[in-house]
TrEMBL record:
UniProt entry tagged with the keyword Transcription: yes
GO biological process: response to stress
Example of a GO MF term: DNA-binding transcription factor activity
Pfam families in alphabetical order: MarR_2
Lineage: Bacteria, Bacillati, Actinomycetota, Actinomycetes, Propionibacteriales
Protein name per UniProt: DNA-binding transcriptional regulator, MarR family
Key words of the record: DNA-binding, Transcription, Transcription regulation
Classification via InterPro entries: HTH_MarR-typ, MarR/SlyA-like, Tscrpt_reg_MarR-type_CS, WH-like_DNA-bd_sf, WH_DNA-bd_sf
Domain HTH marR-type: 12-144
Length: 148
């Protein structure tokens, strides 16, 4: 573990440092909590996206997540190998494939969402419910409004 006293107040007070430390901690917690479900946080993001939309092409899903096509192909290949997603021809445009959750993927999504919720609760354990909600709201505002 990093001793913040060794880093100095100039570094540990920077937003970049604080956000990165929180992200690293959350990634560790997700790895721990999602391991029993056989999923990683990036795979969970794909399942959450697909579970909340009508079947769409992998290009559309990649664009929504802000993931390049090559990374999305790898993520979908892994999820397909686990039986969590299926690619099939688009009934409207047979030239493209759409991706959708399988029944096993829907079960995995429910289990992994609960595990992710546990990881987030562990990260935010020192905050009360109002503080946790405020943090989420502030991060949402900052993350969506910085480049207007």
């Amino acid at each position: 573990m990093v001793n913040e006293a060794d880093l100095g107040p100039e570094l540990v007070g920077r937003l970049t440092y604080l956000l990165k430390r929180a992200l690293l901690e959350l990634e560790d917690l997700h790895a721990e909590h999602l391991a029993p479900a056989g999923l990683g946080a990036r795979e969970l993001a794909v399942l959450l996206l697909l579970g909340g939309h009508e079947p769409e092409s992998q290009q559309q899903a990649a664009a929504r997540l802000g993931v390049d096509r090559t990374s999305m192909v790898g993520l979908l290949d892994g999820l397909e190998a686990k039986g969590f997603v299926a690619r099939r021809p688009d009934p409207v445009d047979r030239r493209r494939n759409v991706v959708e959750l399988t029944p096993a993927g829907q079960v995995a999504l429910r289990e992994a969402t609960r595990a992710s919720d546990d990881a987030e609760r562990a990260l935010l354990a020192d905050l009360d419910d109002a503080e946790a909600a405020q943090l989420r709201a502030l991060l949402r505002r900052v993350g969506h409004g910085a480049r207007r």
